[in-house]
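lol so apparently i was supposed to do this last week
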Amino acid sequence: MPTKYTSTRNHIISASPKEAMLKGLASNNGLFVLNELGENKINLKEIMQKDYLDMGQEILQILLPDFSKKEIHESLHNAYYDTFSSPKIAPVQSVNDFHILELFHGPTAAFKDFGLQLLPELMERAITLNQKIMILTATSGDTGTAALNGFKNIDKFGISVFYPENGVSPIQKQQMLTTNGINTNVASIAGNFDDAQKNVKEIFNNQSLLNTLSDNVSLSSANSINIGRLIPQVVYYFNAYKELLEKEAIKLGDKINFTVPTGNFGDALAGYYAKLLGLPINKIIIACNQNNVLTDFFNEGIYDRNRDFFKTVAPSMDIQISSNFERLLYYESGKDDQYIKSLMADLEKNGKYQVKPELLKNIKSKFASYYASDKEIKTAINQVFKEEHYLMDPHTAAGYLAMKQYQNESDDNCQNVLLSTANPYKFVETVSDAILGSHENDPIKTTQKLAKYTQIEVPISLQNLFNKEVKVESVINPNDMTQFVQQKVKEVFSDDNN
Ligand SMILES: *Cc1c(COP(=O)(O)O)cnc(C)c1O
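anyway here it is w/ pyridoxal-5'-phosphate bound
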């Protein structure tokens, strides 16, 4: 039987990997999952002989079996060969008693490039002859830039990005407003990330909107709800393990811990997928900022978003509905689609759900979670720079604090890998506040001062950012997103542009 992805909320709804990727979200609002995941383990010894792209080839062939070997090979090559500034793509730096997996060497300086360099390549190879797709993306900052960059000027695709008006860093905004393609659109919405994400999900299921689109135009997502965005991230967990073997920090088969700064739970879920595929992972530590819905869940078994929303110094984690957590609940509940459907209905209706004790126990055997305040984050950036001469971005610093807390509380002897999700210069104001005690009004000046003091290089993509032509920012009401999408579909796919 060919491999099918099914909806977390109903097994009957299914799609081939290519279809699941083109659709983004299942038709009942559920997320596509692969039921066989974990039934066959990857041969660890063999995959550890491979380089990054060949590891990717093996993992993608397992998870996306309807793509040909050639399609996967070409996609990986185009996505990662020569586009990352580090030849290792995802290098690991050892600092003191832990390791940092640097995921910010791609074109937009955050880990989103791993998914979004590859997703357009895969989608281009999955799309049918007459099909056209408008990609809709809600972003807390980094997905937007990486998605615009990935889909820019790609034939048969248009992209519309929605970011929270006051919820992204000045650099992130500049990146989005300077990525100009004939098929790219950006709007800021008066609201937060959760508002943007909720509306995007609603648009996917807005039948009357879908009816107005011409026959061959459909909508899809570049958020981590899309399997094509998520699966590429599995590869760097395997590659990090290999780096630790090469450093002789571990022996083949030793278990290690990963700490993951978390928002929508995509990155952490990719780690969980790696574990299901046979990577020896002991614990995945979920790091949150003051928006600590997940940390509370781990303590109480209740996911409750009825709480204040905080704008923090780690804005890409300012999220109260972690979409991909649904996929974890699905696997850890024994793939109980009807149970997941009821939990998600509770979340929709009451803003919260409580899980069965055995489900919480299962999850806690594989994960731990901690959160950090803004003040703690800044102190950690300062301390690690002083002690180790390593400059962390605020998201990575939240991860660092969670990792340290875990190390203090647990008695395992596993090596610890901290995922560094963004380059520190993307959040230069906060990093400058932490290191120098203040920042300038102008991001260029702040960057120059910080670089001079720390002697840590600014990535080229950020150096040129402020010389580029900037689009006028359009601010829209969340309720007008549907109309915006309708309009952009017309503009992008009008005959003049084809
Ligand atoms: C997106 C993002 C996160 C959160 O990742 P998720 O996959 O949404 O959990 C953390 N840090 C940075 C810098 C990000 O851009």
